[in-house]
């Protein structure tokens, strides 16, 4: 039994390392694709600098949180001061990915129980900071639509070069739409062989209705011959 538990623990650590691929294996071809996404985002901001991003998906388990974490990492690797915000106030995961505590986070800032500076945590990645979700509230959508959220975003853009929001699936709840309306741009994550075309189109429609600058879509979990995965960034 003891040997089984050890194996399970090792598997968990390995999974976490894979989630932070751009940090743990920066020369991996997939890590290079995250840098390509970063470059394309920067080119998209030729007319107006993009300093805040929402990443969302149409449904669960489509790679949204992994993409958000690795995109934040490659921005930090460029020497920028980056804040990754876990704005999924229903099923947060960022604190697990970065192995940090979640006693204080976004909800504490939005309810004025903490300042942004007090709630932000350092990560193992230089120049990358994390604002976890904090305690799960009974009214996530209302908190994200509050004036305090606008103040937090404004403060975040003043203190950091890039602020990236990991949000819930847009077809499930209104949270991603609410934030997409406030940030500079948004990216839709779709999963090869899983995301249905109609769902992706509906997600795009909702982001457009939110008057968000939708930069494009990231296609993940697309297998290639060598057994690797790649991420594709395309125009909407």
From TrEMBL:
<feature type="domain" description="AAA">
    <location>
        <begin position="63"/>
        <end position="181"/>
    </location>
</feature>
<keyword id="KW-0067">ATP-binding</keyword>
<comment type="similarity">
    <text>Belongs to the CpsD/CapB family.</text>
</comment>
<keyword id="KW-0418">Kinase</keyword>
<dbReference type="InterPro" id="IPR050445">
    <property type="entry name" value="Bact_polysacc_biosynth/exp"/>
</dbReference>
<keyword id="KW-0547">Nucleotide-binding</keyword>
<dbReference type="InterPro" id="IPR025669">
    <property type="entry name" value="AAA_dom"/>
</dbReference>
<protein>
    <recommendedName>
        <fullName>non-specific protein-tyrosine kinase</fullName>
        <ecNumber>2.7.10.2</ecNumber>
    </recommendedName>
</protein>
<dbReference type="InterPro" id="IPR027417">
    <property type="entry name" value="P-loop_NTPase"/>
</dbReference>
<dbReference type="GO" id="GO:0005886">
    <property type="term" value="C:plasma membrane"/>
</dbReference>
<dbReference type="InterPro" id="IPR005702">
    <property type="entry name" value="Wzc-like_C"/>
</dbReference>
<dbReference type="GO" id="GO:0004715">
    <property type="term" value="F:non-membrane spanning protein tyrosine kinase activity"/>
</dbReference>
<dbReference type="GO" id="GO:0005524">
    <property type="term" value="F:ATP binding"/>
</dbReference>
<dbReference type="Pfam" id="PF13614">
    <property type="entry name" value="AAA_31"/>
</dbReference>
<keyword id="KW-0808">Transferase</keyword>
<dbReference type="GO" id="GO:0042802">
    <property type="term" value="F:identical protein binding"/>
</dbReference>
<keyword id="KW-0829">Tyrosine-protein kinase</keyword>
């Amino acid at each position: 039994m003891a040997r089984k538990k050890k194996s399970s623990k090792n598997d968990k650590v390995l999974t976490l390392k894979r989630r932070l691929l751009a940090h743990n294996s920066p020369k991996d071809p997939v890590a290079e694709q995250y840098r390509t996404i970063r470059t394309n985002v920067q080119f998209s901001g030729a007319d107006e600098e993009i300093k805040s991003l929402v990443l969302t998906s149409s449904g669960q388990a489509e790679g949204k949180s992994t993409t958000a974490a690795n995109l934040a990492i490659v921005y930090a690797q460029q020497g920028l001061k980056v804040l990754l915000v876990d704005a999924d106030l229903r099923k947060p995961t960022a604190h697990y990915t970065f192995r940090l505590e979640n006693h204080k986070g976004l909800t504490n800032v939005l309810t004025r129980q903490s300042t942004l500076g007090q709630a932000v945590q350092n990560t193992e990645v230089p120049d990358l900071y994390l604002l976890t979700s904090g305690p799960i509230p009974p009214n996530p959508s209302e908190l994200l639509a509050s004036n305090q959220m606008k103040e937090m975003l404004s403060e975040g853009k003043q203190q950091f070069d890039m602020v990236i929001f990991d949000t819930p699936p847009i077809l499930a709840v209104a949270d991603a739409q609410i934030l997409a309306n406030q940030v500079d741009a948004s990216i839709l994550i779709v999963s090869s062989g899983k995301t249905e075309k109609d769902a992706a189109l509906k997600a795009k429609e909702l982001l457009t209705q939110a008057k968000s600058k939708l930069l494009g879509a990231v296609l993940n979990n697309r297998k290639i011959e060598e057994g690797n995965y790649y991420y594709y960034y395309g125009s909407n």
